[in-house]
Amino acid sequence: MKGKEHWIRKKGDIKLFLWQKPAAGAPKGTILFVHGSSMASQPTFDLQVPGRPDSSAMDWFAARGFDTWYDGQRGLRPLGQDRGRSTATSPNGADDLAAATDYISATTGAKKLLVYGISSGALRAALFAQRHPERVARLALDAFVWTGEGSPTLAERKKRLPEFSAKNRRPIDRAFVHSIFERDHPGTADKATIEAFADAILALDDSVPTGTYVDMCSKLPLVDPAKITVPTHRHARRVRRHRRRRRPARVLQAAAATRQAVHGDGRASRTRASSRRTT
Description:
This protein is an alpha/beta fold. The protein is about 35% helix and about 20% strand. The protein has 10 helices and 11 strands. The chain has helices at about 40-45, 55-65, 90-110, 120-130, 150-160, 160-165, 175-180, 190-205, 210-220, 245-255; strands at about 5-10, 15-20, 30-35, 65-70, 115-120, 135-140, 170, 205-210, 230-235, 260-265, 265-270. The strands form 3 sheets. It has a 7-stranded mixed beta sheet, sandwiched between helices. Strands 7-8 form a two-stranded antiparallel ribbon. The longest helix has 19 residues, at about 90-110. The protein is globular and about 50 Å long. The two termini are about 35 Å apart. The relative contact order is 0.17.
C-alpha cells in the first residue's frame, strides 16, 4: 500500500515529518499514531515483514477504510534538522502533535482524530488530548506511564539520569532493540519480526533523543487524568505471544467501547474491564 510524505515547518528551523496511508474511498475516520522514545514511527506502525501479512498497522487500518497518519518526533530521521541540537521532550512533542493535527485538518477536513500513542508516545498523546480535547474523538494509550511508581524499568533507567540529562542523544544498536523484547517476557516475540523491526530502526538511526527518558525518570506526572475529557482506553501489557503490529487494532477497538480513569501508580480503573498494572 502506497504512502505519502508531508512536511511541516514550525518557527525557527523545526521541521516535522508526517506519513499518510489513506483509505480507499471516503474514510470511516482518521487515525494519528504516536510512537515511543527509542525508534521512529515507520518501524513501529508501518513495518513490512516478508511472509507476515498485517505487520503494518497502517496498512491494516487503511485497508479497512481509515485514513492513517503517523507523526515524526524531533531528532529522529527522516527529519532534516540538526539532530544533535534538537531537544525532544513530552511537552514540545504535544505541541508538535497540535501542529500535526492542524495540518491534517487543513489537508483532509478531519476535525476530530482517533489518537493512539504507545509508551512515551502515549504520554505525548495524553498531554495533547488534555490540551486539545476538541481535536480528539477517542484516545488509546498503550503502555502509558503516569506517575511511574512501581515500574522496575524506570527504576533502572533512573540510575542513568545524570547521563541522559547531560546530553541530547543516547546510542542504540541491535542489542538494545533485542532488549526491548527480552526485558519483561523473553521468548514471547516472533524472531523474524524482531529482526525486521531492528533492521528498520537501525536503517534510520544509531542514536535517539534523551528528552522523553528524562521526562519519565524525573518529571512525572506530566498529565492530569481529571483534565482528559475525551473517551479514553488504557492498554497494559500482558504475558502473551507477541503481536506488536496488530496490537493497535485491539487497543483502538477497545477505545471505541471503553472509558476509564487512571489512578495513582499507573493503574487503570475501567467501567468495562479489569485493572492491569503498567510497566
